[in-house]
Specification:
Layout (H helix, E strand, L loop, with lengths): L1 H41 L1 E4 L5 E4 L3 H6 L3 H32 L6 H13 L2 H12 L4 H8 L14 H25 L4 H9 L4 H12 L1 H16 L3 H7 L12 H11 L4 H31 L1
Antiparallel strand pairs: 1-2
Protein name: Sugar ABC transporter permease
GO cellular component, one term: plasma membrane
InterPro entries: ABC_transporter_permease, MetI-like, MetI-like_sf
Length: 299
């Protein structure tokens, strides 16, 4: 009996792995494999044109990061972008979700309208905003009509990154709004009814019931926001035509990785080291957020 049960268990395990094999192959080829290859490249000087070669240089690529001014600028720009965009898009998404969950007239229409930016290609949105940000664009025309000073959104180093931030906050908040909206509808009405009996007003109910109940969802939204914002590339690339300008003000880590990997000869290994460093930063930020959210949930 014991031998038959063990054979049955092995057969079921084999069948399970057989059904999982397509997903495992995809995971190995397109996720684990590339990650391991990037780690391999980060410790080598790579030559991909002509005579292909991989020369082991140990930690030289990582040491080079300490003296790379553009890498420091890219890291600072990325951190600044993350610190501003993640809280703003999270707060905006929560406010929009709470508003649309309040039972207002025409809320279905507004849900569709608010969600439309999420359905639009990031490249298309960027081109639209570039037209709006142009010196003769819609925003400057409106500012001029109101008698306010106009700005060179695309050419001023002090404004260019902020322009990308504003665009991304507006375009990414609706996606997280839908997540919040689904979570809001799962909060029991009895909690709000009990709060009303205790004399709580709308603000108190929101702060003392809604926000704590949404804590796990907020943790998820923040983590997804961190991962997405650390990987800013396409908007910065389109805004600056791939240069990270003006004056490196829109240069991000991923854009710099692209430049070193595909625009400069002999720096593929260094680009891999920079990408590996970014992965470590994202992982660290995510783990810190998870630990912080766990401590909050215990409270």
């Amino acid at each position: 009996m014991r031998g038959k049960s063990s054979k049955k268990a092995l057969r079921e395990a084999g069948q399970g792995f057989l059904f999982m094999s397509p997903a495992l192959v995809v995971l190995l080829l397109f996720i684990i494999g590339p990650i391991l290859f990037v780690v391999f490249l980060s410790f080598h000087k790579v030559q991909l044109l002509g005579n292909v070669s991989f020369d082991f240089v140990a930690f030289d690529n990582f040491k080079r990061l300490l003296d790379d001014t553009r890498a420091k600028i890219a890291l600072w720009n990325t951190f600044k972008y993350v610190i501003i965009v993640v809280p703003c898009q999270t707060l905006l998404a929560l406010i929009l979700a709470a508003t649309l969950n309040a039972g207002l007239k025409g809320q279905t229409f507004f849900r569709i309208v608010y969600f439309l930016p999420t359905l639009t290609s990031s490249a298309v949105l960027t081109l639209i905003f570039m037209w709006m940000y142009n010196k003769e664009g819609l925003i400057n025309k409106l500012l001029d009509f109101l008698g306010l000073p106009t700005y060179n959104f695309l050419g001023d180093p002090g404004i260019a990154l902020n322009a990308i931030m504003a665009m991304n906050i507006w375009s990414t908040a609706p996606f997280f709004m839908v997540i919040y909206l689904a979570a809001l509808q799962d909060i029991p009405d009895s909690l709000y009814e009990a709060a009303e009996l205790d004399g709580a007003n709308a603000l108190q109910k929101f702060w003392l019931i809604t926000v704590p109940q949404l804590r796990p969802v907020t943790s998820f939204v923040v983590i997804m926001g961190l991962i997405g914002t650390f990987q800013l590339f396409d908007q910065s690339y389109i805004f600056s035509a791939g240069s990270g300008g003006p004056d490196n003000s829109t240069l991000t880590v991923v854009l710099l990785v692209y430049q070193y990997a595909f625009k400069t000869l002999g720096t593929m290994g260094y680009a891999a080291a920079l990408a590996f460093l970014l992965a470590i930063v994202i992982l660290t930020a995510t783990l810190i957020q998870r630990k912080f959210s766990k401590e909050e949930s215990l409270y």
